[in-house]
Specification:
By secondary structure, the chain is mainly alpha-helical. The chain has helices at 2-31, 35-84, 98-137, 152-190, 197-203, 214-251, 256-265, 270-309, 314-317, 321-324, 331-375, 387-420, 431-464, 514-527, 549-569; strands at 425-426, 429-430, 494-499, 502-507. Among the domains are: 44-129, no CATH class; 154-276, no CATH class; 311-378 and 387-457, Methane Monooxygenase Hydroxylase, Chain G, domain 1 (Up-down Bundle). It contains 15 helices and four strands. The strands form two sheets. The protein has a two-stranded antiparallel ribbon. Strands 3-4 form a two-stranded antiparallel sheet.
Amino acid sequence: MSSRRSEALAFSLVTGINNAMARLVDIWDNIGIMEEQRVERMETVKQHIEGLLNDMITEEEALKLRIRANIITFKKQLDTLCLEMSMDPYKMEEGLTVLQIEKNLRLRVEVLTKEKGERLKELHGLQQQDKELCVELCVTPYYIPTGSMPSCTQLQELREHIQTLSEEKKSRAKVFSGLREDIRKLMEEMGHEPETSLEKESVGHDEDVFLLTHENIKALKLLLCQMEVKKESLTNTLAELKERSMCLWNRLDALEQDCNVFQESVMGTLSDQITQWQGELDRLTDLQKTRLEDVIDKVRQELVAFWDKCNMGPEQREPFNAHFCDNNVTEELLALHDAALLKVKNYYDQVKPFLEALQRWEKYWALFQDFEKKANDPNRFSNRGGALLKEAKEKVKVQKMLPKLEEELKKGVEAWENDQGSAFLVQGQRVMTYISSQWEEYKQQRGKEKSERAALQTSKKGEMTTPFKTPTKRAHGGINGPTPNKIRKTPSQLTRVRSSSTFISVPSSKPLSQVQMQKMRPLESSSSQRTPLLECNSTERKQPVEISYSDFASALSKKTSDSVFNSTEKDPTF
């Protein structure tokens, strides 16, 4: 591809020269330059072009010679660097041009020269660190011949050697510091004055007084053992008294300030401290006997609060009733209450997301029931202030949220129950059973209301079908004839048909015929079917049926359309 490009450029160069010459000839023709002058001018152009090309050829030949000389120089430098740095000789790739060979050799020499300087610099720093560590730890330095160029392997081994020594130094320094601190504390607690030189150096604050050798570590460990044996019995007694006193402080809700004051007031030798702690323990024991009942009462109150938070039913609280009602206050009874409280707290932390979801469901469930009660109120359609539209939007939101929350609860609780191997109960029931029981209870309440409305509707219908007497029309124009403004409509002239909670008023001058009553009965029967969820389920069933909001909404879809129709019929303008 590159050869074709060069050929095309050469051809274009020749074509350009030819075009330029043709252009010159045209200019000369226009000017009227004679043949002899044209030959002279062409010779000048030829000499100029040949001179330029010759200069370029000379420069390129010189470049070629320089490149070859550089190749020889770079090869010598590269061989020397590879030998010094213990590297394999550099192998040239075959088929490369002279320019590519020179470039590769130059870059390789630059890389190795830079690496050589970095190695020497790193070697100097590593040897300095190695020397310092070896002096502190009394070990032999890593050997590299002076003046030699380290290989990559030698540098890596030196790094690893220094890393090992650094870790060993940290470990030994930690051991030394811990041993000296322990010895110092033991002596201070016992009031022991240093006697030997080792004891004096151990309690001193000079960190460099000891070389970090194994022999010095062994000597400090032996001294520590001697101190520990001397005070072991007193320390154990004091630790036991402290532990018992702190436990009683926590149970009696002692103020932290008071505890700190007492601890700060404890002074003297171990024997004096034991006496003071023993006195505090006796005081706390007597105080616990007088306040044990109050402590247990507080735990019981907190336990009941968490039971309520977890919606635990009587069956779940029953196992602990024996202890809860036990009036024999003892430390064992307090321990049982603490264990029960800890258990219910852990349970609450596990099921907290489900309890929060259940609270949201109960919130929307209450809103749903409130909207259903408002739907049966015929007076709500008289509101023209936009409240009805707002109520409709909120009802749509509730209708969406109820099934969503029920589904989330069902999936989350099932996953938790499978993972824990236990049931999540709400007032002693499974969560979906609890929700279904709420729907079932609501359905029964609606059935009861329906029965009451049906009885009331029957009584109203009986009153409406009672024959009315139509007043005799009088001829106009008589002395006793009524004027148009004084015409009255008797109750018999308005026929009212009750449909569910809505009345349809029909102006009439005479009682309705049998045919008209039959035409109005389908409207009455259809609009009165405001059935609760799953009307097909018998109200005599005792066990709650699993009911979700989607089932209930489908059962009420027809009721909504009837309610809208009845609200239109109720408008007094009709």
